[in-house]
Amino acid sequence: MLxxxxxxxxxxxxxxxxxxxxxxxxQSRPIDTFSYMKDQPYTLEVWPTVATGLGPxxxxxxxxxxxxxxxxxxxxLSKFTSKLGGNTRDKLGNIAExxxxxxxxxxxxxxxxxxxxxxxxxxxxxxVHNSAELKRVWDTANPDEGEQxxxxxxxxxxxxxxxxxxxxxxxxxxxxxxxxxxxxxxxxCGHIYRHDKERYRHTYRRVNDWVADLRDSLSEEDELxxxxxxxIHTAWDSSSVEPGRHSERAMAATTMDTDLFDDVRDARxxxxxxxxxxxxxxxxxxxxxxxxxxxxxx
Length: 298
What we know:
With 298 residues, this protein is of the alpha/beta class. It contains 11 helices and 10 strands. The protein has a single domain (2-55, 113-279), classed as 3-Layer(aba) Sandwich (Alkaline Phosphatase, subunit A), CATH 3.40.720.
């Protein structure tokens, strides 16, 4: 099985600074990323490109449309707020929800992607699968009641990350050829700790330990690929860019001997070449429908 870990905002400069060798695996390298509708690489544009091999103009997800509302009028008006800051959009969204009862979701592409097919699974991949998980991470910086504390933020953000790595380790126990999971821990902590080198170092070491544990769980037949969509500019790094903005310092690393790709747009073809699909069981499950309906489960 090839495990693909999408470590959002994994930055090759910070990997070198923070002494986190598990994040470099057997080989690693910087890779090129891109900006499309925004002036910096953007999660909801790049990760669908990694999975589909298509640019934003083809997979249809761009920074100009990051949410879909159940109310058509609210959905139309939301298109005009894409240039506003996140806090402003969040406040406007809360007003729209309270007045209209509308709910928003993060859109997903209709394009085919690398995780489709028997023996292939994916979890929490922005623009492709269970994109609501991304909103759950964003909400760690926007608590429903009161101001967020460092302790409360870390409890939530590390708890979510641990769940995602737990799902990934569990997939190793199943007959699969490919599994992908997106983890937003480094990105969110990078924005929050853009001026706090020690707390961000702690975040990297936490993720490093998760990756090391996952690698230790691999069998001889398993391989691991980690990659990012961008990095994060911080107050202490080599650039003069405003801390907290996305950098173009994306990277990839793998346990395989195969030469790595040099651009996020080439990731799908590399993954396809690395995956060896076989025959997988399709035994149908015996569902006690009447019992489950009686209990209200379905």
